[in-house]
């Protein structure tokens, strides 16, 4: 079966891997420049920076087994009994998606189902045709914003899903050692700060700050983060560092649907994502696993 998957985060990449193993032909569409979603990794001064999720926590035996398999393939490292990390978190997503036809920088704007086939139209008005099945792994608001015919009751369900945003500033450079992590940890609006590779700080702002500023683009939000840092480190100057800012508008699910997946047998599409069950990568895994077990 020829299957289109929209979204190349964990859910999309894992589904691509498993469905390829079942003999299906997979095309994976991603609006960004690479796979990863909130498990994104970016190169910066010859360093890999995990500016989204930088560790996986396991609660279920199934997800633990999956992570152990990734360790055996040298794609993840085991930190403790239930925590797994990697120097580049998107590496194992590249592995999972390697057998799919990957179309990056491709934002799907419109989806039409006609004569038992799907046609997907991207931001450049290019049509991708003749798919027999459609899988959506995007955040609920992005699904609602697409030109795609959904049942009214499903639209209403998707509208109930709520998210918390996360604004992130990444700093690196020769003067990084002059920054005191203890002082930075006193930032009033801080969610978490991590030191990666001994030369990069990843600063995640808390939900109150991030939600307040999530209407701004990443460039416009930067001065507000700098202002928060200068409250505790008055001599902080952004121009002393190499940096980038990212806004995870749909960073964490605060109100999920509490169902494992959405499946429409009549129109041959399904939705699988973390926000259906919770907020974690494990929730994304369990959603995809349940869908695969029961429908494929």
From TrEMBL:
Pfam families on file: NAD_binding_8
Domain of life: Bacteria
InterPro entries according to UniProt: FAD/NAD-bd_sf
Entries under Gene3D superfamilies matching the protein: 3.90.660.10, FAD/NAD(P)-binding domain
Listed name of the protein: NAD/FAD-dependent oxidoreductase
Upper lineage: Bacteria, Pseudomonadati, Campylobacterota, Epsilonproteobacteria, Campylobacterales
């Amino acid at each position: 079966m020829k299957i289109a998957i929209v979204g190349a985060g964990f859910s999309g990449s894992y589904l691509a891997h498993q469905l390829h193993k079942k003999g299906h032909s997979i095309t994976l569409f991603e609006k960004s420049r690479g796979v990863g979603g909130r498990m994104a990794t970016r190169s910066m001064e010859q360093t890999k920076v995990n500016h989204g999720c930088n560790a996986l926590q396991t609660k279920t035996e199934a997800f633990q087994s999956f992570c152990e398999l990734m360790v055996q393939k040298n794609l993840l490292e085991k930190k403790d009994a239930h925590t797994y990390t990697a120097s580049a978190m998107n590496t194992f997503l590249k592995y999972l998606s390697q057998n799919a036809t990957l179309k990056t920088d491709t934002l799907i704007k419109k989806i039409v189902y006609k004569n038992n086939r799907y046609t997907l139209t991207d931001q450049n008005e290019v049509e991708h045709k003749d798919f027999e099945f459609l899988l959506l792994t995007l955040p609920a608001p992005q699904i609602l914003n697409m030109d795609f015919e959904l049942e009214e009751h499903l639209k209403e369900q998707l509208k109930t899903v709520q998210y918390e945003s996360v604004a992130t500033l990444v700093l690196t450079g020769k003067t990084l050692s002059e920054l005191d992590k203890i002082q930075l940890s006193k930032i009033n609006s801080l969610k978490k700060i991590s030191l990666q590779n001994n030369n990069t700080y990843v600063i995640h702002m808390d939900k109150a700050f991030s939600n307040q500023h999530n209407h701004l683009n990443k460039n416009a939000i930067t001065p507000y983060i700098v202002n928060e840092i200068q409250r505790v480190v008055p001599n902080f100057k952004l121009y002393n560092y190499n940096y980038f800012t990212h806004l995870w508008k749909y960073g964490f699910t605060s109100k999920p649907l509490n169902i494992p997946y959405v499946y429409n047998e009549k129109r041959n599409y399904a939705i699988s994502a973390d926000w259906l069950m919770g907020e974690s990568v494990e929730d994304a895994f369990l959603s995809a696993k349940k869908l695969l077990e029961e429908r494929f």
